[in-house]
Design goal:
Blueprint (H helix, E strand, L loop, with lengths): L26 H13 L1 H15 L7 H9 L17 H14 L6 H12 L5 H15 L7 H17 L11 H22 L4 H5 L8 H21 L1
Length: about 240
Amino acid sequence: MPPKREPSREGEKPHPADVLVDAVRQPEEFSRILEDWLNRHDGWCNARLRFFNSFAGQNHFDIDRLIGSANMFDILPNSAAPADVELPDELAAARKAGRNIFLPLPTSPERDSVLGALGRIGKASLKQKVRHRVQRIVAALPKRFAELQTVTDEAVNCRNYFVHGAVQRFDYGTHFNLVSFFTETLEFVFAASDLIESGWDIAAWANIPTSMSHPFARFRIGYAEHLRELKSVLGS
């Protein structure tokens, strides 16, 4: 029951060397990774569905795809996200006092917004959840994806602009190729960290020559150049 997608170019398929896990030459590794991936699917299914829907866009990028690729980290199971922070007594008391003040007030968007913010104190933000997943990749490939956390932080900043009207770090319309890079980065981090937890050897994959027929291979080869462009834009 594979996902059905239209190829971005007629007849385009990944070259066998670019498939992430080689079921023909490494059947035992393939079976082990697949079994673990399926065993975790109940907890991951909603987030993975968002990934599949986003990734199906292939070479077509827009703002909605960026937002979706960021939001899938927000619905990861607790086991895949950073643990809640234990609050100091003073901060816990202040949060409780704030709830006691706002809870009896008449329902309004402002009152609900404050209560929501108080409830999120001590819980991981979207940016922290993405950073947590980044660490799986950085631990395995400390040099291949330099400053990956910087890229994902900027990706979340960009998402926050389009969702909340936060400050624009640069002109996203003029540099929309970087918005596409943010989307590719978030999709890669999500899927790669998921596969790593299932036993995928990302370091071996990163050293295999590629024809760049798979999106992750193209991301791997183009990452350094996109990072240089991002740093140049941020610096200016």
